[in-house]
Amino acid sequence: MLAKNIFKLLPITLLLSTAVSAQDACSTDAVHALADVTVSDGKTYSVESLFRSRHQAASVFIQENGSTNVVEGPFSWVATKDQAELGGNFLRDYALGHQFHAFLLHFNDIVSDIEVIEDTAFNDKSYQAARGVLDTGGYVSLMNPNAQQPAGLRFELGEYLIDITLSDWREQDGVQVPFTLRIDDQQRIFNYRYQFVDTSQKPLMWFYDNVTAPDIDAIGIYRLHRKQLIAHCLADADMLASTLAPNVVMANGGQVVNTSPDQTRDVFENNVFKRRQYATYIDTKYPAIEVAASGDLGWAVVQLHTEGRHPDTGEPFNEHWAWTMLAKKIDNQWLMVGNTSNRQ
Prior knowledge:
By secondary structure, this protein is α+β, with helices and mostly antiparallel strands. The protein has helices at about 90-95, 100-105, 105-110, 205-210, 215-235, 235-240, 260-275; strands spanning about 30-40, 45-55, 55-60, 70, 75-80, 85, 110-120, 125-135, 140-145, 150-155, 160-170, 175-185, 190-200, 245-250, 255-260, 275-285, 290, 295-310, 315-330, 335-344. The chain has 7 helices and 20 strands. It is globular, with a radius of gyration of 22 Å.
């Protein structure tokens, strides 16, 4: 489960434009944990896990030249001090597979097609198990799922079978969480002892503030898109303006308009955000993202669902949008230079 050199194991493929819905940009759910790990072969290290949803999670291995392994919307990526690369399904499972507390607290949100299996053997005992399917096709089972303190987790990821036994339960942020894990991957035993487990709500930019973007242009464009959604959730006109190039060309409603960050800030601060309070903003499909060969131009084609209310009247809105965002790399930062949109 814990590969020594993960770069040698990754098929470098992009996961683009599927029917999977991405995380709600307005959600404040989070799980943050840090564990010291000892391995049966004598190795020791620490692991930090940061979780927003199954579409936004990071596992950071704290050791010399340790790796940061991330699931981020349509992509998975891995970075060390020296390099960063996109990955495929293996890395997606690897990054998400270390979010042990998230699987306990958000099991129904991480897996799909859950079935209940009676009399599942686990640690020489028999338990009822809830078994669900990961986006990549692997399986995760929660042992004794209805108990306040479930017995453990089982991952079935291709040829890998990994059993995780939970112990040292403590109340944290009003919920019971384990502070000790024993992980058996059929080759070695990993003992995790957690320094902290934080399940409290976090600011909307928390993940991006704590997981530095790699030098991968597609990730830069994706984060630009998601930052714009978060700006809507926060009604933050300054944040929205910070995502724009000095001159932006907008095409919608049968018109083409040139605008600037200051003009956009004024429109949203004094008009849009006075009429709309966003409660939900979701990519209903993963954005299709492309980067030009020149490396300084790119675009994202997106499909979204948003809900909210008028701040004064309480009148609800529920809308579906699609748009193409054009982006340009200016002073090593991706900014929006154009947008064409339509509403269903």
